[in-house]
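Batch manifest, entry 17 of 40.
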Amino acid sequence: MIFSISNHIEQIINGSKTMTRRDSDRYQEDHLYSVQPKRIAKGIPEGKIYITIKKREWKPDFSDLPKAAHFAKSWREMEAGYPIQDFEAKLEGGYTSMEFEKLYERIHPNWAERWAYYFRFFTKQELDEIMTPSCAKGENEK
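Output type: structure tokens
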């Protein structure tokens, strides 16, 4: 998964970024993904992210007021035009909901639907421990 904003990879590693929003549905829950600084770069050696939850979000169409009103009741922030809540924006890297939505609009100006992914970062050491069969680990400790 590509994280091209300069401080996002550092935030992932230190645990302050545990959520991302994407315009595609290509990432699946219960899967590990490399963290890449750009499209053609290899994943960082420090570890990988594990998608724990994903959910679909959409921008309301205010030309259909009954639908928009229903949407606004579902999300307290919607009346202000910012569909994510502040705690989610903080998980995105310490933003307020307004700051995050402005950033997202700058990156994806024509978005109508997006996917929110909650994830956990696993260090290389944690992954090595998880991937080591427990019976083999026990044999090495004898």
